[in-house]
Q: What sequence folds into this?
């Protein structure tokens, strides 16, 4: 396999990938279907912004956001069924159970842990220890600017954390588990070793004070952009969207079986951060995973970073048997 | 494979099913993770032909199988997500001759079904842990929440652009609401509701999976056996 040159890199030498938007297939079907899958993403994003910007205070609260989030994911599951990107990514019962198990962990035990050692709690403790206040100038900005900054600051940090995970072995051990997924579905973003799920959630947003409505707006915008990272739906995503935001195409390349392709498209929401640092590759891949597409069981996902880390330590520091030992006479 | 194959009439399978009293006890509960079934073979189809038609199911990565004496046994390790039998870990298929023609009997176990069956218990346990930790952490969080509420009581103004565009202004919490929230302390942070919702969700998924996967494998086997 020759691969395709993208900048200084050869992408697709290990496994087939599609590079360039002109080579990515379009939505097939009648005019309504094509119209729907072209404008669905922008329509949802702008509807969310309008809703959270103008919703009365009695409605603009976290419980509404959770309800909308669940209903939206249910809708996207239905879209996966109606217009799948790849048949080979079809959601099976077993995949659905596995994904929801990790979503459940996020809502329960990981959330509990975050209450004690999450970045917001740590920053809160730091600020109160030194009797510092949060950076209050944030709240004087227009709501949408506040929302964008909340998202951008988090995404910028996450870009470097994610890139670090692909470049520093101890972090990679935790993140590698997520790369064993062999297909993209709406809840696949939640799949990973709990240590990584904790690390990827770290951010410095707690340093800033902001209006609750700005936080809700940021959450809604983040959901309306980031939710498509792991989804099995074919969209005719508008060019401006693909230039600014991470898409399932970008993220499929990041999960590709091709090693070089996985070292691209690190940002969670804003792919322009990857463009800024030269790590963006436009295109898509169907064959995903590691080790030729081996699927990892939940048990292995839980233990892999530790067992693999132990193996590496033993190889590096353990006593090696001398293969050239001469038996005593 | 060597040795005499035990009879399937008693739904017993070699090497896996316990014997004696333990067997009858196990029979009461093993439907949780075991899928059994039987299918009539098309007229004139013998054991070899039937297994030849089903062989593609077992020519999948991570699957090993052994066929001898009218019996096919298989095991799977880390099957692919799209493997049509991905939920099963091991099992046996056997063709038996009956007066009306051949019958394929199968018996397969699934750790995935067992996991989904036990998942509600796990999430109920998570809920209990969250409640327990909430009780232990209450004195600390109450103080922190008090400070947070004091901060929240400050009413901030919207930027003039937002005022001009008509975004609703932040409200100062009403007195009674504030007191109510104060009584609740940090309860929301240690609410077990999500855990119980997921427990219910996995119970529902188990029922769906137990029925769906049983029917799917039956349909797939039937289609392969009757295929040209």
A:
């Amino acid at each position: 396999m020759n691969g395709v040159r993208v900048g200084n890199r050869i992408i697709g030498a290990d496994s087939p990938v599609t590079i360039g938007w002109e080579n990515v297939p379009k939505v097939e079907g009648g005019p309504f279907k094509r119209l729907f899958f072209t404008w669905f993403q922008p329509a949802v994003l702008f509807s969310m912004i309008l809703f959270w910007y103008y919703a009365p205070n009695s409605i603009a609260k976290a419980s509404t956001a959770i309800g909308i989030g669940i209903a939206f994911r249910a809708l996207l599951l239905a879209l996966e069924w109606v217009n799948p990107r790849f048949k080979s990514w079809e959601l099976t019962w077993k995949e659905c159970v596995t994904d929801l198990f990790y979503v459940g962990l996020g809502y329960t035990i990981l959330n509990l842990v975050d209450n004690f050692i999450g970045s917001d709690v740590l920053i809160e403790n730091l600020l109160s220890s030194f009797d510092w206040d949060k950076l209050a100038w944030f709240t004087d900005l227009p709501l949408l600017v506040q929302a964008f900054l909340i998202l951008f600051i988090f995404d910028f940090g996450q870009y470097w954390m994610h890139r670090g995970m692909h470049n520093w072995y101890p972090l990679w051990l935790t993140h590698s588990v997520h790369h064993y997924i062999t297909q993209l579905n709406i809840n696949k973003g939640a799949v990973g070793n709990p240590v990584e799920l904790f690390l990827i959630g770290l951010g410095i947003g707690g340093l800033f004070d902001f209006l609750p409505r700005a936080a809700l707006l940021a959450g809604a915008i983040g959901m309306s952009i980031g939710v498509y990272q792991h989804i099995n739906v074919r969209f005719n995503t508008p060019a401006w969207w693909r230039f600014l935001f991470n898409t399932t195409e970008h993220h499929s390349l990041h999960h590709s079986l091709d090693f070089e392709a996985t070292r691209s498209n690190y940002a969670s929401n804003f792919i322009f951060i990857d463009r800024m640092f030269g790590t963006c590759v436009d295109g898509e891949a169907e064959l995903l995973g590691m080790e030729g597409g081996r699927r990892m069981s939940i048990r292995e996902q839980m233990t892999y970073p530790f067992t693999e880390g132990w193996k590496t330590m033993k190889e590096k520091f353990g006593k090696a048997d001398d293969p050239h030992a001469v038996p005593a006479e | 494979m060597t040795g005499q194959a035990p009879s399937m009439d008693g739904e017993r399978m070699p090497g896996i099913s316990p014997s004696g009293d333990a067997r009858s006890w196990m029979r009461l509960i093993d439907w949780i993770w075991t899928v059994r079934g039987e299918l009539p073979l098309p007229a004139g189809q013998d054991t070899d032909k039937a297994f030849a038609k089903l062989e593609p199911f077992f020519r999948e990565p991570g699957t090993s199988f052994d066929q001898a004496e009218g019996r096919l046994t298989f095991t799977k390790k880390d099957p692919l997500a799209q493997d049509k039998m991905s939920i099963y870990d091991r099992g046996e298929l056997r063709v038996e001759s009956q007066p009306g023609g051949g019958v394929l009997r199968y018996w397969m176990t699934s750790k995935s079904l067992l996991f989904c069956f036990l998942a509600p218990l796990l999430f109920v346990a998570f809920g209990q842990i969250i409640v327990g930790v909430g009780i232990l952490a209450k004195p600390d969080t109450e103080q922190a929440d008090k400070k947070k509420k004091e901060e929240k009581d400050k009413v901030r103004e919207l930027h003039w652009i937002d005022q001009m565009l008509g975004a609703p202004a932040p409200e100062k919490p009403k007195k009674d609401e504030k007191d109510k929230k104060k009584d609740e302390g940090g309860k929301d942070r240690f609410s077990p509701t999500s855990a119980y919702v997921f427990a219910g969700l996995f119970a529902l998924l188990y029922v769906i999976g137990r029925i769906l996967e049983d029917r799917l494998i039956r349909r797939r086997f039937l289609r392969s056996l009757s295929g040209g």
User: Anything to note?
Assistant: The mean pLDDT of chain A is 91.
